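pipeline stage [seq->struct] | target=Flagellar motor switch protein FliM | organism=Cerasibacillus terrae | residues=332
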Amino acid sequence: MVDEVLSQSEIDALLSALSTGEMDAEELKQEEEDKKIRVYDFKRALRFSKDQVRSIGRIHENYARLLTTFFSGQLRTYVNISVASVDQIPYEEFIRSVPRTTILNVFRMDPLDGTLIMEINPNIAYTMLDRLLGGQGNTESIMNELTEIETVIMTQLFEKTSPILKEAWASLIDVDPILDDFENNPQFLQMVSPNETVIVVSFNTTIGDVSGMINICIPHMVLEPIIPKLSVHYQMQTSTIKGDLEAVKKISKNLQQSSIEMKAILGETRININQFLHLMKDDFITLDKTVNDPLLLLLNDVPKFNVQLGKVGNHVSVQVLEEIKGGVVHDE
């Protein structure tokens, strides 16, 4: 709140009203006290800070991109998934917000306690099923009870998303998500107490011409052990360290696959142009090394080893005698 600065005329008018009884000082004081009181709803206890909620949102933005790629390949059609909102609400409110008939995937998040729910809007779920069964996937229709075959098909589809969830959470903790249950009636799911705080990440989802929502419900008990890791500082520090390690690994891998030129110098000599122009068959060129002298082995034209000429099978070879470092010879 920005403090308001009164002009001199306003101050005089206020003092005049107080002195004449038009305004009561006690009433003004009470009004100021009333402004400081805020209503707090204990059913909507906020157990996560804004920074922590934003961190969860960033993690699931990456998850949305991964899911977009996955479902595009599985359904062979245009898919777009993006984070719409991240809220903390009571579990009871989440259950009331989902349709009576929907798709609910319950993931166990070992080694964390508790489970995570992925709720798929009926329009989106029906479109996915229609595409998997060879249809166009553009019919918006109310989903009835799934048959056993349809349930198996949908279960297998969402089981394949477990590695994606693992990858998205990797910046926080190494989890092993497992699809533990598959339901289409939210009333059968009572994971936590109704007043338990949960984080609900909502995704805008488009498959072909059909749009709908996918919701991820994460109970507080799942996130409680890793709440300190949700701070912005930890996220930046972790991402920096991981980025540095990945860069080192990538550079090392590229270096190991790099090609270098290696050549052994039998010897050298100097002749003039006239001698070079008059070289004939069977002429001899005298080098600066004898047959018993070690040869110089160059790596990309840099002297690296003194070697001895030899033969392995039908191949000419060299045996390393000593290493050359900075012009100094080191015996092997």
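stage status: PASS
auto-comment: The longest strand covers residues 79-90. The radius of gyration is 37 Å.
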